[in-house]
Amino acid sequence: MAMLATAVAVVSVLVGGLLAAVALTGHVFGAWSSPESLTPGLIGAAMLGTAPGLFAVATRARAWHEARTLVHPLAVVLVGLFTVSLLNAGHLYIARGGSIVPVLFSLGWLFVLGVLCVCALIALAWQHFTPAQPIGPRVAPLPGWSKPALAVLGSAWLGIGTGLLARPGFWADFVPWSVNRPDAQALGVWALALGVGVLGALAEDDLGRTGSALIALPVTAVTPTVVLVFRAAAVDWSSGPALCLVAMIAGLLLAGASGRVLLTKSLAPQPRH
User: Fold this and answer.
1) How many CB atoms lie within 10 A of CB 270?
2) In this predicted model, which residue has the larger pLDDT, 98 or 233?
3) Measured at the alpha carbon of residue 165, what is the angle toward residues 86 and 173, in degrees to the nearest 5?
4) Which long-range contacts (CB under 8 A, 24 or more apart) does 264-267 make?
5) Bigger pLDDT: 66 or 80?
6) CA–CA separation, 240 vs 253, rounded Å?
7) If pLDDT is split at 50, 70 and 90, which confidence band does 99 have?
């Protein structure tokens, strides 16, 4: 699992950094043709945002219960993006044709996603069939006031992601910028993964078990914000969905930052009396 997390982190830095950087210039680049550079830019930004947490899985997590809050969303992203790419294969540059760079990128996108998807499924199956080791007591239970907010935040991301994946033709109209079908479903995959991650942390009810996810969460909120700021002209900011998106990204940032603060305080040595 640590090897998988490291491999995905390296790919995320390279590919995510490329997609985000090109989007900041206003150019459209990705595995398929998009009507607006914002969508591939956000996908790349999300990949960049998760990379620090994935590196932390490989270096800091000592047991499965300390990694699963981030690994389960990772599996959702890998399987989801690979499936979306196959279902929309006709939109890929390798099928549509075009200049050599996007065609080769779409071929590499499909191949690398396929390999990582198979590796993730094998690693998860191996992990879940391995006899579980005893888990110690919770070191830093979630404060009671945070649970309703996390439930709302996770359910919002989960619901939007499910809608974009299941009915992209309908829910794409609620995205406050121009998207096509693969754009909508790829955004849905990431929204679904964020929902799974937030609700998974709620189910764990222990900040000590979500250390890697707490590293990824605020960064995953900041990197898409940078892309949104640079490509602000493409967004219909007067619409309700745009305001909801801002609130949900702010929720991710607040949840991640406050979680880090609470975890640090809980692990700090207590003064002796």
Assistant:
1) 6
2) 233
3) 115
4) 266/139, 266/140, 266/207, 266/208, 267/139, 267/140, 267/208
5) 80
6) 20
7) confident
Residues 6 or more apart from 146 whose CB is under 8 A from it? 255, 258
Q: pLDDT, tens digit, for every residue of 18-75?
A: 999 999 998 999 999 999 999 999 999 999 999 999 999 988 888 888 889 999 999 9
